[in-house]
Amino acid sequence: MEEELKCPVCGSLFREPIILPCSHNVCLPCARTIAVQTPDGEQHLPQPLLHSRGSGLPAAAAAAPPLDQDPAAGPACSGGSGGAAGGLGGGAGGGGDHADKLSLYSETDSGYGSYTPSLKSPNGVRVLPMVPAPPGSSAAAARGAACSSLSSSSSSSITCPQCHRSASLDHRGLRGFQRNRLLEAIVQRYQQGRGAVHGASAAAAVAICQLCDRTPPEPAATLCEQCDVLYCAACQLKCHPSRGPFAKHRLVQPPPPPAPAEAASASPGAAQGAPSGGGGCKSPGGAGAGAAGGGAARKFPTCPEHEMENYSMYCVSCRTPVCYLCLEEGRHGKHEVKQLGAMWKQHKAQLSQALNGVSDKAKEAKEFLVQLKNILQQIQENGLDYEACLVAQCDALVDALTRQKAKLLTKVTKEREHKLKMVWDQINHCTLKLRQSTGLMEYCLEVIKENDPSGFLQISDALIKRVQVSQEQWVKGALEPKVSAEFDLTLDSEPLLQAIHQLDFIQMKLPPVPLLQLEKCCTHNNSVTLAWRMPPFTHSPVDGYILELDDGDGGQFREVYVGKETLCTIDGLHFNSTYNARVKAFNSSGVGPYSKTVVLQTSDVAWFTFDPNSGHRDIILSNDNQTATCSSYDDRVVLGTAAFSKGVHYWELHVDRYDNHPDPAFGVARASVVKDMMLGKDDKAWAMYVDNNRSWFMHCNSHTNRTEGGVCKGATVGVLLDLNKHTLTFFINGQQQGPTAFSHVDGVFMPALSLNRNVQVTLHTGLEVPTNLGRPKLSGN
After folding, report:
1. Residue 51 three-state SS
2. φ, ψ for residue 192 (rounded to 5)?
3. Burial code of 611-641, b = ≥16 C-beta within 10 A, e = fewer?
4. Closest by alpha carbon to 668, among 644, 692, 690?
5. How far apart are the C-alpha atoms of 71 and 91, rounded to whole Å?
6. I want to staple 17 with a disulfide (CB 3.0 to 4.6 A). Which of 180, 539, 557, 644 is the partner?
7. Which helix (H) or strand (E) holds 177?
8. Last residue of a domain, one of 143, 164, 179
């Protein structure tokens, strides 16, 4: 609540708050700082002030006149202790810290207040710059001259620091705005509850009588709201008797002592305003009120136009309280005026009612904050769990890669050992053969060196054979390596690298429970519409939904829809039945849980019209598809928009036109019935066709159950379909036509009609099954 009790200009708790026309509040001292005075022209200014332009004197050399005083009060308008404490500087030495950079009468701002932020206006609102004092004159004289000049030649305005709406000040200045004493009382209670007032300081600052000649003065016993003076009991009897002119004055208890913080903040202003306070105009509350708590005094406000009168009425048109003198003067003669107390109670009730809504929203906000805090905790816990899971999964990948690395190294080692063995075997074999061949060559050379022909011939044949055999041993490929030095092993790591680069989080969770949108779920006739959505903040992907519906008798659920849509309408259900529906979502991970079950009740009776989409093209429909005729002389079929598979249903057709004795047919049919011939001539329809004298039942072009009684203009034909008993009964003007038919037939049936251009009928649906229908009049086949 403290933010509501702070001034938007100074940022401190309100002191002497006033109500601006925009309904916002501002401290009275702060209002003096943000008020703007606009001169009508520089020629009206005193010569010393005109001379001060460009003189380079500091802006704090003089203070602007308080705008909460009457201009007629004279030049000495520096204010009392309260005014000095909240003015533009409170004297010659205290205004420099709060002055704008630009002079009030400089050529750059043309006499208007600047929006330049300053210490006194943290929100950047308009601040009235100080008027430089003329050379050689005192600050008090300069203030007096400025006040006198500006009061006569300038207008003033104030801009709200919150909504930035400007309001012009009248001749009363800031005193024209109402004092928000209710806010003052709330601030005072808040300060007391916060512990700002201590026992010792409160005892030392007891309000004292302002007229006592005793030393020390007696404690004050009463406060006169009109005089704004504190009296002890003796002085009240002597100086303020309850008779004569004082009889209408209201005496109240003296206000509580001010908080220490307020007393400390008011003391510098009082010290500064003391030297220049001679003959000054007393601010509201006066010096005596300042001693008793300043603007914190709680008292009933009085009318600003008639300061001796309290408010007693409320003007609804002006939205302001008024006194009885205002009404007698005729200012609100044509306005709606009500008792102040009644309007007070009415507005209190309105505020209480509005607070109930805010209270509910605040309660929801608190619950929402608790939910958010729980979400924070869940995020922390889930984050740690996911981090641990990620580390475990990555460690598992690293372990798997390490194991695969060992397997691959084993393969490389085996391949290397195999190649080495093959090469060493070939080296040993080739070395052996080379040693044998070399030895044979050396022996043969030695034999050739011998000169004994006979001895040479004895061994030459054998040596030639051996050399040939040795040569044959070096066959083709014997001197080629059996293995290559290159390894025929290529590690295909690219897919694994791509998989590692593509390694990311995928949602492996099942989809959550869908939420049924009950406000969109509805029924119409024998069709139901269901809508659902996923919960907010759902990150699980959803590939589709499965909608299930029972049979209307509490039986097993069956799938009626599978797809991605979140809105589905199911037609062709039973009338007067209760269905249970539920939905679940699925994704690649599986099927999620079911939603809550919603119960839907279909209509008790059928409301339908002729179906323009299923009728023959020669059929002409009107009256919102409730009246049918034909453009052809041949019989044409039109169906109804309802489909029946269970229950008892009744509808009527009124014959609007009947010319040249045609044979219209009334009944039921399958959706695939032939539509370019009379109803009942195929096996998809069951009907009664009738002329002006009698009627017949017809199915598969078979005519049976002829009954006396025909139709004419104005006749009513009733059709009673009982699918529980598998019967179809017809009535003409309430009289049953022949025995019932349609026995032992199952399936889905639609109301049907065949007629030509000589007949026009109007359909009536939504009818209860009649109980007083007549019996048939049989006439044979």
Report:
1. helix
2. -65, -45
3. beebbbebbbbeeebbbbbbeeeebbbbbbb
4. 644
5. 20
6. 180
7. none
8. 179
